[in-house]
Amino acid sequence: MNNLFNVKGKTAIITGASSGLGKHFAKTLSKAGANLIICARRMQNLEDLKKELEGEVHVLPLDVASEESVLNFFSEVQNLIGSADILINNAGTSDPKKFKDLDEESWKYVLETNLNGCYRVAKNFTDALLREKKPGSIINIASILGLRVGLNLTSYATAKAGLVQLTKSMALELARSNIRVNAIAPGYILTEINEDFFATEEGQSYIKNIPMNRLGLESDLDGILLLLCSDASSFMTGSIIPVDGGHLINPL
Length: 252
Hints:
Blueprint: E1 11-15, H1 20-31, E2 35-40, H2 43-50, E3 57-61, H3 67-80, E4 86-89, H4 104-132, E5 136-141, H5 154-174, E6 179-186, E7 189-190, H6 195-198, H7 201-208, E8 216-217, H8 222-229, E9 240-243
Parallel strand pairs: 1-2, 1-4, 2-3, 4-5, 5-6, 6-9, 7-8
Helix pairs in contact: 3-4, 4-5
């Protein structure tokens, strides 16, 4: 049982690792013994994070919204290690606006990162595994807003809903190649990015709608992350797993 969630010796790519959940995921997997490739646009943040991590850690630049950047990134991964075992497809962004105030630039900005970017990274990661005939695990970071909607988040919710369907489609087609594809759908998780908002009166009103009456902590995602990264989930693929304090089961 002690080895059930073992990730020692496996290499994980974590996109959007310069802050927020990506940064926390890197720390969690590092403590669990995984080797890491941490990537994002903000290189100094990644270099600072590397000092806090254990084991083998590679730092690479990556802008998931750029096809050229993604291709260059995987070329460098190929040169370094060949292919990784795990992908944490975490990079994302948001631009909260009412639908009536949305413009083309804002819409494309969110969709390009949260959906197209996840596709690009997952496709190149999958191609590398198929070339080497290796098994692998892809964990897409979706959101409960991909399953239900919230105010002023049309582009974000649409992108995350697309990511949910992308996860299921990939899982179906890649199952026979022993590549598992699952998604974590967090609810409201307290991070360094949103802590100021949740301290406001408006932020506190969001918390009151959570059945468990609290925000999630980054550590609340550790168990599901290690489950999906390890062989403990060897018979799981196409699963969309909410971690939300019961938010999705709120009565209408």
